[in-house]
Amino acid sequence: MRVFWTALAILIALLVQTALGRLLPMQARVFDPFLLVVVYCGLTGGETHAMLAGAAAGWVQDVHFGGRILGLSGLTKVLVGFAVGVGSTRFHLGEPAARLLVLMVATVADALLFGQLAQVFDVQAYSLSPLGLAARAAVNGAVGMVVFETVDRQIKRWAPRT
Amino acid sequence: MARVLETKRSRFLLGGLVLAHLVAISRQVDRGGGTSLLGQTVFAVLSPFQRVVGAGLGAMVATWSGYVDLRHVSRENQELRTRMATLEMELQRQQDRLREADRLREIADVKPTLPFETLLAQVIATDGVPWYRTVTLNRGKDDGVSLNSPVISTTGVVGRVMAVGPRAAKVQLLLDHESGLGVRIERSRITAVVSGQAGFADHVGNLLAMKFVPVLADVAVGDVVVTSGLDRMFPKGLMVGRVQSVKATGGLFKDILVAPSAHFERLEELMVVRAQPDDLVLTQEVRPPEPAGPGPRSTTKIGSPAAR
After folding, report:
1. Coil, helix or strand at residue B190
2. Count of CB atoms situated within 10 Å of the CB of B2
3. For chain B, how far is it from start to end, CA to CA, in angstroms?
4. I need a surface site. Which of A46, A99, A155, B32 has the fewest CB within 10 A?
């Protein structure tokens, strides 16, 4: 069941990114719905779940929006998923403020790791300026907090019936 | 105890996943890119969803923009409001059709003048990450699109196909930092390479960097830049853009920026060249005929305007 929901979340992330790219091309680059899926899996399902979700989400992102070399986002999101998963088992990250912080740190880590990996594999990918990175972290954090809260509420609402 | 086992298992999984990724990426680096079977499969399975979103969004946007201005009209005017909304939506739809017809007519004007077969394709998705500049088209292998096929618009070169599925294809735009296109300054016949500008993703604009032009080369602002055909991928003589700025850097090469002639900020209908790369090494440059007279629309076409 968990695999189904994760796959569905990744599919929704793909559709959201596609729709955003068509409607607001510039803003779409600031928001990363795939990262939200990975972070949520890390916060609620632990590192194993987050790593597998990260690999799947990263590859889907690479295949559809990536460049010449596929797998950079996959590897980045595996590492981010692992870090978030480990963090969630050691610290209490259920509060909205903690989640906001995790999302922002994960966004920055994702961008920096991607840039470093691109350099290692000699891929000429664009990077974000510090201001652009801050904006991406803020947007992912704000949207992620609302999305996580909504998903949690829905899960709580439906949990007793199942 | 269970936690220790779980930790060990997750460490093994992390090691396995990282190793698998490194192997997958290294294999692609060795091959110089291209699409893997896994990549092709994921692209083929999920691109239909993107097609649906792409098609649905057009209708949704038209409906939304037709209604959004009418939200605060009072209840007494309900009938008028409904009528107005209907008419406005109809008008908007007609205007959209008119614009689409204009764009298609422009393509239809250009297509017969090109000495190679092209395929009309629509953009269904644009780049969703800051790291690359790509778009996805609604045409794929089933329609005759192949890897590295040149993609052009009515005004200039757009990019090349970098991944292809059965019903969709991903195009690397000229604006991408990793792109590269063999070009020539039409006036002075100097050859060079253009690609996306270096810099932060949120700072670079829609300009191209022209590389490897010696400091003594004759290049001036406003010079027309066309494809050279030397990359054996794009036909010779296709319009790329105009030189926007030329700076001497103190090094061996000039620092040149080119304003592309393709409108990258509003890519909708594009043409995919269906010929094989070997067929595209033409002996003559691509020159659509001069329009008969001054028409109401722009006459900037895919072939370069000068030296006809």
Report:
1. coil
2. 6
3. 81
4. B32
Strands B224-227 and B169-173, bridge-based pairing: unpaired
| Cα separation, B65 vs A114, whole angstroms | 38
Look up residue B210 and give its amino acid.
M
The residue type found at A10 is I
Query: Which chain B residues are Cβ-neighbours of A63 within 8 angstroms?
Result: 39, 42-43, 46, 163
pLDDT digits (tens, 9 = 90+) for B217-256: 889 999 999 998 888 888 888 899 999 999 887 788 889 9
> Above 0.85 for ipTM, yes or no?
no
Token pair, residue B281, equals: 């090494």
Name the pTM for this structure. 0.70
Question: B10: which chain A residues are within 8 Å (Cβ-Cβ)?
Answer: 46-48, 51, 82, 85-86
* Residues from chain B contacting residue A86 (CB–CB below 8 Å): 10
Determine, for residues B200 and A129 on separate chains, whether the beta-carbon distance falls below 8 Å: yes
Q: What is the chain A residue with the closest CA to B51?
A: A18
pLDDT tens by residue, B14-39: 888 888 888 888 877 666 555 667 77
- Tell whether A122 lies on the interface with B, counting CB pairs under 8 A: yes
| Per-residue model confidence as pLDDT tens digits over B252-291 | 888 999 999 998 888 888 999 886 555 554 444 444 444 4
Across A43-65, average pLDDT? 91
Q: Do B29 and A122 touch (CB under 8 A)?
A: yes
